[in-house]
Amino acid sequence: MTIFEISKSNRIGYELPENNINDFDLNLPEHLIRKEDPKLPQVSEVDVVRHYTNLAAKNYAVDVGFYPLGSCTMKYNPKINEKIANLEGFSMIHPFQPHETTQGALKLMFELKEMLCEITGMDDMTLIPSAGAHGELTGMLIARAYHLSRGDTKRTKAIVPDSAHGTNPASAAMAGFEVVEIKSGPDGRVDLEELKNALDENVAVLMLTNPNTLGLFEKDILKISEMVHEKGALLYYDGANLNALLGITRPGDMGFDIVHLNLHKTFSTPHGMGGPGSGPVGVKKHLAKFLPIPEIVKENEEYKLNYNKPDSIGFIRSNYGNFSVMVRAYTYLKTMGKDGLKKVGQMAVLNANYLRKKVEKIMEIAYPDFCMHEFVSTCEKFTKETGVKALDIAKRLLDYGVHAPTMYFPLIVHEDFMIEPTETESKDTLDKFAEILSKIFEEAKENPDFVKNAPYNTPVRRLDDVSASRKPVFRFNFGK
Q1: Does residue 358 sit in the same domain as residue 442?
Q2: I want to staple 185 with a disulfide (CB 3.0 to 4.6 A). Which of 87, 191, 279, 338 is the partner?
Q3: Residue 283 sits in the same domain as residue 402
């Protein structure tokens, strides 16, 4: 039910103060002037509060239950992060205030940048990009600027493994590169022979996620780095899976030249449903001059925004990023400390491998190797035997109060789940998830149609995904 459907004539929840401004002519164009009153709902205050409270109760969130989305690191968000982000000095500032009045905010961002450089092994960093994909585009524009600054105009290709995140090829293409896909080896990692054949004098960059989307660490990363750099290309790090490596190893030490991070994943700030996010981009010193403007600098204990960077790729968005997300990430880093971050990485890997061993008794593991923070399982054989698909199992999970894992990704595995438990989940939660998954597989064997028609206990049943994407309804129908 929508707010319009509970509307009743003459119900009032709020009244504006009496207008004491004399009428005046705004001289608006005729086509901008309303011909009739807006169709606003007429509801009392308690109607509004109950309506939206009930809607909120229908939402699923990491504060409600287990959220094992692979590669998305939907970890618990400590409430102290929210408290600090809502301090008046942070929440009430304006991006166009003089820098003399925002020293606290600038200091926070400067120190956050330094901490992220230390964590990733980078020499400099920008916090401006709005999210991961925006960070990817920023990194690709930096790679292009680097090659063009050297007069190397022939480097038009970006190599992307077939297990990469879907935004990687899109970001490379948006930056003007031709995307070259290389196939993974039988172990799910980069095939060195495939890479060797793809590397030539026209390659500008290799985009890599490590651990990759299958949750596997690239054991040959130093060799890969050597091969890429020997050809004069750059090595780009997609930081979506950094949660597995915190405090254990750094992309910069592996040979990466550019790295983007997801503050809204790795550093415990809420995300999903379109934002807000934050995708800082770090670089080695030979690329620092290409970072976007403005940059935060410290001069004689004063923090300023510097716009004087002649080699910069320029502005990539208005103002200086999603500040409230940065405050949350800063709070998380200060709370955890060096030892705490290392434990995050260790526990993320431990939880994933524990759950992998539980799940492999229920469904096949696509690449049965020691994983990092996530793993990919497949029910392809089970689907052929019973007709029950991964989507059906995912829908049935909802009836048990568990959010479904990432499905049908990466594309190189069929009828798959990508499962990431994160470091914040207990052994009890992981055991319960495996138990529920086992029950659903037994249900599917005994009564496939029952699972095919799930869910049964959710506010709505199965939706028509095709119609929703091709013929979306964004406005309430008032009967016209």
Answers
A1: yes
A2: 191
A3: no
Query: What is the rounded distance in angstroms from the CA atom of residue 271 to the CA atom of residue 405?
Result: 16
CB-CB contact of 122 with 139 (8 Å): no
The structure's pTM equals 0.91
Q: What is the mean pLDDT of the chain?
A: 94
Nearest Cα residue to 387 out of 457, 466, 450:
450
Are 38 and 19 in the same domain?
Answer: yes
Question: Cα–Cα distance between 342 and 247 in angstroms, integer?
Answer: 4
pLDDT tens, position by position, 62-103? 888 999 999 888 888 899 999 999 999 999 999 899 999 999
List, in order, residues 6 or more apart from 328 with CB less than 8 Å away. 77, 81, 82, 84, 85, 263, 267, 268, 269, 270
Residues 409-419: tens digit of each pLDDT = 999 999 999 99
